[in-house]
């Protein structure tokens, strides 16, 4: 039997299965459509988890799964005469995604612009040139990961610090593996107390469940999550110095001003949300306008800038500087947009639509009833973090937000914390871990990370205990 025939057979078997109405639409949890949707989502996510070995981009299976799931839902609702309910649910999920897409697109464009202006190369060269020993580099890369990720997001930060570790580590596989683990833990912990640090925190902020300032309540618990494993692992890092050559990196024109514009863009997004209660994405898109105008200014003033630098280089008889000036390319905002992580953005679309479809089928309501009505919400949120390590925090957090359980501010902060740092327990549990397995292929591995899972789990438990102690008044 052809695959297409098999899918159609499952579809029509599901349509023939009785369903009964509920407040949200049709309850299809006991139907063939429901079972088929679960199987399709499960198979798609198995392919996502095997991305490293299959060399199949993670967006492909979830895009296909989302289309099939919503096609089945459409037929089921059309047969029951409730197609408008399905259309409204579909449009709601598309709106949720479009807001996050545009927000992330602007943030990624700014990060790409900073990278093109060689800001990250400059930071990397500075660390290498200082002649730090392995243990100092272990702490420095971890600390910088924790500090930078709240602004630049955990994935970008982890890749930047991994490049430093790979450069100074050379053939020292033990150092590279343990330093990469430390970077993943630090980047995820740093991203947990900022709306800009991770997609999950951004989703919680955009949903209006936690304000921008209230995320700061997670700073100390996040720091505990990073420090405890780092202290234990540091005893296994040697104090010997690496052998590596110094490299001088010259920042391109406008690099520092782009950083200032990014900070101003973040302030604009926060202002839109705080002052007029508009979605932060409006402020972010306005911030993209700042970057476009600055790019226009850089292009228009480039000839005059090159003439000045050329005159200085000729006066100093600096042949290398003249050669660099000859290869200067004008700044192009739209080229920076094209360099965004489109695989991640499309993967996020697939996840949002798949989880939205499962919600309409009734599964998330069923899970929500068990976790948040029959369990203590604190234990439910702890389990969310454990699931994030196995599945990935994006679909888990989106599922929680779709359930919309009645939670106190303390519990919303707790689930934000656990979803953000829980993925650190396994290398496949976060975007940072998956990316580093590719960047340090064969040097940072799943099993190399797994060996340190008990230590990371200790930091996970300690961060939860710290949050319950410090922020108990919020529950």
From TrEMBL:
Subcellular location: Membrane
Coiled coil location: none
Lineage, highest ranks first: Bacteria, Pseudomonadati, Pseudomonadota, Gammaproteobacteria, Alteromonadales
Protein name per its UniProtKB record: Sodium:proton antiporter NhaD
GO molecular function: antiporter activity
Recorded superkingdom: Bacteria
Family, per entry: Belongs to the NhaD Na(+)/H(+) (TC 2.A.62) antiporter family.
Parts of the chain that traverse the membrane: 31-49, 61-77, 134-152, 218-237, 258-275, 281-298, 345-366, 378-401, 413-440, 452-470
InterPro entries associated with the record: Cit_transptr-like_dom, NhaD-like
Signal peptide annotation: 1-21
Keywords, comma-separated and alphabetical: Antiport, Ion transport, Membrane, Signal, Sodium, Sodium transport, Transmembrane, Transmembrane helix, Transport
Keyword Glycosyltransferase in record: no
């Amino acid at each position: 039997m052809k695959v297409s025939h098999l899918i159609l057979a499952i579809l029509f078997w599901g349509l023939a299965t009785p369903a009964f109405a509920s407040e949200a639409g049709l309850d299809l949890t006991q139907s063939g459509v429901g079972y088929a949707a679960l199987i399709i989502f499960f198979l798609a996510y198995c392919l996502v988890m095997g991305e490293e070995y299959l060399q199949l981009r993670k967006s492909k299976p979830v895009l296909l799964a989302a289309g099939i799931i919503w096609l089945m839902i459409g037929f089921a609702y059309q047969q029951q005469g409730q197609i408008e309910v399905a259309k409204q649910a579909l449009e709601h999920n598309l709106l949720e995604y479009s807001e996050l897409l545009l927000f992330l697109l602007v943030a990624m464009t700014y990060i790409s612009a900073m990278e093109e202006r060689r800001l990250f190369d400059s930071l990397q060269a500075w660390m290498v040139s200082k002649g730090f020993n392995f243990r100092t580099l272990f702490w420095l890369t971890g600390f910088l990961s924790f500090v930078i990720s709240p602004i630049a997001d955990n994935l970008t930060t982890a890749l930047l610090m991994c490049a430093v570790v790979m450069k100074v580590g050379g053939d020292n596989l033990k150092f590279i593996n343990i330093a990469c683990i430390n970077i993943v833990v630090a980047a995820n912990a740093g991203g947990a107390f900022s709306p800009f640090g991770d997609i999950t925190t951004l989703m919680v902020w955009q949903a209006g469940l936690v304000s921008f300032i209230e995320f700061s309540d997670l700073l100390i618990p996040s720091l505990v999550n990073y420090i405890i494993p780092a202290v234990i692992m540091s005893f296994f890092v040697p104090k010997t110095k690496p052998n590596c050559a110094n490299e001088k990196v010259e920042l391109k024109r406008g690099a520092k001003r782009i950083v200032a514009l990014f900070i101003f863009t973040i302030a604009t997004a926060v202002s839109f949300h705080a002052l007029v209660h508009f979605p932060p994405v409006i402020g972010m898109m306005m911030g993209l306008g700042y970057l476009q105008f600055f790019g226009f200014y850089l292009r228009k003033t480039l000839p005059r800038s090159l003439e000045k630098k050329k005159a200085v280089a000729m006066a100093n008889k600096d042949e290398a500087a003249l050669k660099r000036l000859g290869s200067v390319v004008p700044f192009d905002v739209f080229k920076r947009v094209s360099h965004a992580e489109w695989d991640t953005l499309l993967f996020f679309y697939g996840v949002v639509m798949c989880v939205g479809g499962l919600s309409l089928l009734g599964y998330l309501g069923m899970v929500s009833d068990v976790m948040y009505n029959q369990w203590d919400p604190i234990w439910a949120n702890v389990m969310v973090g454990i699931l994030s390590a196995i599945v990935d925090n994006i679909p888990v957090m989106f599922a929680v937000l779709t359930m919309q359980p009645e939670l106190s501010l303390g519990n919303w902060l707790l689930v934000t914390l656990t979803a953000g740092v829980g993925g650190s327990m396994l290398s496949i549990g976060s975007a940072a871990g998956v990316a580093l397995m590719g960047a340090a292929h064969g040097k940072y591995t799943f099993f190399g990370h797994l060996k340190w899972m008990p230590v990371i789990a200790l930091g996970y438990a300690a961060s939860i205990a710290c949050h319950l102690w410090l922020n108990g008044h919020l529950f």
